[in-house]
Amino acid sequence: MVIKRIAAGIGALITMTLAGVAAAAPGSHGTAVPVSHKKAAANYLYASIGDFDTTVKPLMDRPDIGGVQVVVPWKALEPKKDQYDFSSIDEALNYLQPRHKKLVVQIQDRFFTPQGRLPGYLLADPEYKGGAAPTKNDSGLGPGEPGSIAAQWNPQVRGRFQHLLKALAQRFDGRLAGVNLPETATGVDTGKDRTGYTNDSYFHAELDNMAYGKKVFTKTPFIQYVNFWPGEWKNDHNYMGRTFEFAKSHGIGLGGPDILPNRPAQMENSYPFFKRYRGKLPLVAMAVQEPDFEYTNPKTGKPYTRQEFTDFGTNTLGADTIFWATSSPWLHQ
Question: With contact defined as beta carbons under 8 Å apart, do 157 and 131 qualify?
């Protein structure tokens, strides 16, 4: 299976056109903050757990690759209520550990497809009031297929997700190099939603999951991807500001699914905060996923190069680790 993008779309937000681009976070007097150079980020692979054998294993013995981030759907980990199946993670660890490579697991609760990759009980039991909301998947590359997201703003749904986090921590805390939750960007189709979604309830639910994940993973770093918040632009609801301050105060790592230097949407939302909080977070993990190779750099008009991804990710966003799609051209040259 070839993945175009495992995580949720970055939402209709980025289709908006902005005239101004914040190329650097402002200093206290509105001047640009100097960018200092840091040690290059560690290179990891990025893939769906279902592609581990076909796309990860052939690249895993490269000396310039430190490990892999695998994306695992909620349903694959909990096929039936309270019946957990962690065999795919065990198998990946068993392959990686003798090779002295590390494993990061992204737990996926949102998809570019309808609800089939969420646990069946979540969708069928009236207690969860539908369990998921339909999403629109629009990005800077154009509209995508409708998808779905677990209704984390429903306390009963969120309780089940946190039960999964606890079970994973009991099994793997200290054995994984990281556990991360997917990007915050989503585009719930409010005209079709029946779960009671609001931007505020979604925001508070995501922070609650962040805090719970950090609570149960005491040895393995816990990371939240953050790129956009629904209903917000340029931190006008202080969602982004509160997220970074919350992560700092709770010792939670942050990251994102895309390194896209100089892209207006990103430069107006999460990127200035990554720059501002450089050195203040326990871990920053960024990804270069498949669609990122389809964008062009606004400054050059050409597709991004590996060096541009690396330099911007390391020196501007402060990435400690970069997760590269297994289709990255430089991995096959």
Answer: yes
